[in-house]
Amino acid sequence: xxxxxxxxxxxxxxxxxxxxxxxxxxxxxxxxxxxxxxxxxxxxxxxxxxxxxxxxxxxxxxxxxxxxxxxxxxxxxxxxxxxxxxxxxxxxxxxxxxxxxxxxxxxxxxxxxxxxxxxxxxxxxxxxxxxxxxxxxxxxxxxxxxxxxxxxxxxxxxxxxxxxxxxxxxxxxxxxxxxxxxxxxxxxxxxxxxxxxxxxxxxxxxxxxxxxxxxxxxxxxxxxxxxxxxxxxxxxxxxxxxxxxxxxxxxxxxxxxxxxxxxxxxxxxxxxxxxxxxxxxxxxx
Length: 285
Fold this sequence. Notes:
Blueprint: E1 5-7, H1 12-18, E2 26-29, H2 33-41, E3 48-51, E4 62-64, E5 70-73, H3 78-83, H4 85-90, H5 92-99, H6 104-109, H7 112-118, H8 125-131, E6 135-140, E7 143-148, H9 149-152, E8 153-155, E9 158-159, E10 166-172, E11 179-185, E12 196-205, E13 208-217, E14 224-225, H10 227-233, H11 240-253, H12 264-284
Parallel strand pairs: 1-3, 2-3
Antiparallel strand pairs: 4-5, 5-10, 6-7, 6-10, 8-9, 11-12, 12-13, 13-14
Helix pairs in contact: 10-11, 11-12
């Protein structure tokens, strides 16, 4: 590991000002879980790390605004979100997802902003936040802008963020009467990296599925909306035939990639099976 400077700005504005747009070796760091692994592996050799741990406490806050939206500071840890009564009451699917995300040591230090900015396609949060219609507030030298979580990840470890922008807040719309689940399929322990992740959010009335959002993770290079599968399900009654058709549509509409967690054929089979299970689980919530 080569020597590097470790800077500790006291405000988010100071942190943004320290970022160098044209220098990829100057990196922000939140909890540091991903960056330290990349540095140990030799794939990242920063000259400067800009710590966000001492920025204003407001960027660690978890609150619900007057619109009923969940507003999460970008530096809020995953463990604080897991324990939050506000999240548990209004967005129980997030609480369930956090409990199976990595392990408690990681969740104690990893931040929601860093988790999303890392853009590993195997991450659990991007698919379920996309299904819930969440968006991020991004802060840069020119001020703030908003990006839908669905549009944030653009490829393997790539995002729509500029190199001098930081995720300062995550906003999740009220879940209200929408039912939601996140399923992940791992080859080992439940908290391991998934071979497949399926996120579902829907409304269910009179045995009819309405307004359904379907996203898949881990099988593709970014969280991907399942549009054709959603068309099969939207406005339909919940039955085995419809779920089978939706699973087949999902398998056919994606370009699935092989990796160390499973071959493309294996992941495609998993998707055909687990899509229906995820929809049934969402309905039962």
